[in-house]
Each structure stands twice: as structure tokens, then as C-alpha cells.
Amino acid sequence: MKKDLSNIKKAKYLLDYNHCVAIPTETVYGLAANAYSNKATSKIFKLKKRPKSNPLIVHYFRIRDLKEDCELNNNFHKLYNKFCPGPITFVLKLKKKSKISKNVTNGKNTLAVRFPKNSVTRSLLSFLKYPLAAPSANIYTQLSPISKKDVREEFGKKIKFILDGGVSKVGLESTIIDLVNKPQVLRLGGIDIRKISKVLKRKLNYTKNKSIKVPGQSKFHYSPGIPIRLNVKKRHSDEAFVLIHKRKEFDKNYFYLSKNKNLKEAGKNLYKTLRKIKRLKFKKIAVEKIPNIGLGRTINDRLKRASKR
Ligand code: AMP
Ligand code: MG
Questions:
Q1: Claim to verify: residue 148 and residue 233 sit in the same structural domain
Q2: CA 111, CA 91: separation in Å to the nearest integer?
Q3: CA distance 74 to 56
Q4: What pLDDT sits at residue 80?
Q5: Would 295 disulfide with which of 168, 263, 269, 279, CB 3.0-4.6 Å?
Q6: pLDDT at 104
Q7: Is 247 touching ligand 1 by the criterion CB < 6 Å?
Q8: Per-residue model confidence as pLDDT tens digits over 197-229
Q9: Mean pLDDT value of segment 32-48
């Protein structure tokens, strides 16, 4: 996607004046505001209808800027070198002198941080004098947006500006890893935790129930607002049927996540497919079994939460 400098400057202008702007990232589109400003960050919660108790992820351009706000450690450097910029979020200890707004952390002494890869957003970050707090640009518990059009569908005219950076390349939220003490996975996401385990040279497990209760971990989330049945072998005639690989026979109610069981491709297509089904006004969704390995685990995690009522 070609960088349009005038749009990046417009986004900077609005952010400098404490407005929220939607920004493209490789995971999903974010609803961004100056992370140092109480006024700006409080607007994020209001727009998203997100409970104030749910902390936000803060987006940085480079390590030098992050050092102002967080204590860095060896595990952070190892993972940064391997995966950043990219779809991984680190929970780190907040420095006492940090200017991060209390709204962002909900008063905690830890901060979730990330280095997004999308080149339009990286260019924007490079012009700013502050990092950006940015949760996904959707109404709380709804489907995450992966394009400018999706964000507009979520918020209508309620947000002043959406910076276009093309369709999100990963299409799933970041993997969150807590590095304050012993590394712990808090949310499955765009990077396979086996790859993270390899870099840290230790086995990482993900057990949902043990982790802190925060939005990505709440049971009901990422939902298209339509009942979903999982691990389905045979769909009912009124259901949209989501399949992991393309079939030979034609059926207008079939939706394919991948041509050939490619889980990366399936991850990228997940929210797009669910949104498409919603737009087509289906009342029920059935999903066939998705292999529970690598990014398949992230896909299953999102589908399980989306299917909770
Ligand atoms: P979202 O930005 O909507 O994708 O969600 C932000 C996620 O960041 C939440 O689901 C939390 O799991 C996580 N998070 C943010 N701040 C913290 C923190 N200080 N400690 C632990 N998790 C956090
Ligand atoms: Mg979200």
C-alpha cells in the first residue's frame, strides 16, 4: 500500500489535539489516542463502550521510546529481535517516571506494549512525540475490523478519521506474553506460541482460566452477534457453513477460510468471513473442525469466545 503523507499528517494533527483516530495494523485496525493524555485515552473507552477496568495496549515506534516508560529485560530483547515489528504484545513493568495515562493501565504498575508492522502506522508513529494507546477499533465484544470499511461499519461517523493502510495482513490480534516474572502467555494470537517457546528456550503453556481477567480473555468476545456451532460435520440447511478448505461442489452457503487447510491464510480470513456472513444476514453459523495446532489454536480460541452467548 502506497503511503499517503497528507493522510498521515492529518492523523497526526487530530491525535496531537487529543482526538481518536483509527489506524491500520497487521493484526487488526486499532482505535488510537495519545497514550500520555487522560483526555484522549478516555475517549477510547467511551467510543468502544469498553469497561474502564480493561487495560489498553500501547504502540511504539522503537525501543528507545519504550525505555521512557518500561523496564526492559533479557527475554524482551530476545523476542523483540526475533519478532518485532510484528503481532506480539509484551507485558512489562511500568517505570515510576512514565507519563502513561492511568486510564491505559487502570492504575496497574504493568503495561502491555507492541511494535506494529504496518508501514503507514509506523510512519505515523515516527512523527509523534508520544506512543499510541490502541485497542481494536470495534465496539466492545464485537468482531474486530481488518479494513477501513469494517471500522466505518462499526462506528459510522462517530470517529473523525480512519487512516487507510490496506487490509490487515495477519487478521488476528497479537499474541500477548507477560514478561514481568516467569514468561506467561496471556492471549493466543498472530504468532504461534511454539515459536516463542523456541526463542525463550522454555516450554510455554496457555491455560485460559489461570490468567488475569482482561477483555481478550473474557469468555464472550469477538462475536458477530449470530449463534455459532463448532466442530460441525453436517450443517443445517439455514446455516452459513464455514470450512477450512475449498470443496469441489458448489454451495452458496459455504464459506472457505483457506484453499488448502493453510492455517495462516485461514487466520487472515476469519474475521473477514464472519463479517461477510453477518452482512449477508445469516441467522446461524456452523463451523467445521479446525486443526488445533499453531494458528489453528488462535482461530479456535476466537471461535469459542464468539460462540458463547
Ligand atoms: P485489545 O487491545 O482489545 O486487543 O485487548 C488488550 C489486551 O491487552 C487485553 O485483552 C489484555 O489481555 C491485555 N493487557 C493490556 N494491558 C495489560 C496488563 N497491564 N496486564 C495484562 N494484560 C494486559
Ligand atoms: Mg479487542
A1: no
A2: 5
A3: 24
A4: 98
A5: 263
A6: 98
A7: no
A8: 999 999 998 977 554 545 556 677 888 999 999
A9: 98
Q: Does residue 132 share a domain with residue 260?
A: no
Q: 301: domain range?
A: 228-307
* Domain match, 33 and 89 both: yes
> Is residue 135 in contact with ligand 1, taking CB distance under 6 Å?
yes
Confidence of residue 2 (pLDDT cuts 50, 70, 90): low
User: Residue 247 domain-assigned?
Assistant: yes
Contact 27, 174 (CB under 8 A): yes
Do 178 and 265 fall into the same domain?
no
CATH number, domain at 75? 3.90.870.10
Residue tagged 463451523 (cell numbers) = 287
The Å distance, Cα 234 to ligand 2 centre, comes to: 31
Atom 17 of ligand 1 has which residue's CA nearest to it? 112
Residue 220 lies in a domain: no
> Which atom of ligand 1 is nearest the CA belonging to 212?
21
> How confident is the model over 82-130, as pLDDT tens digits?
999 999 999 999 999 999 999 999 999 999 999 999 999 999 999 999 9
**Residues 183/89, Cβ–Cβ less than 8 Å:** no
pLDDT above 90 coverage of the chain, percent = 89
| 21 C-beta closer than 6 A to ligand 1 | no
Q: What is the mean pLDDT of residues 253-259?
A: 96
The domain boundary residue, chosen from 181, 200, 219:
200
The domain total for the chain is 2
Instruction: Please check whether residues 44 and 188 belong to one and the same domain.
Output: yes
In this prediction, residue 280 carries a pLDDT of: 96
* Any atom of ligand 1 within 6 Å of the Cβ of 184: no
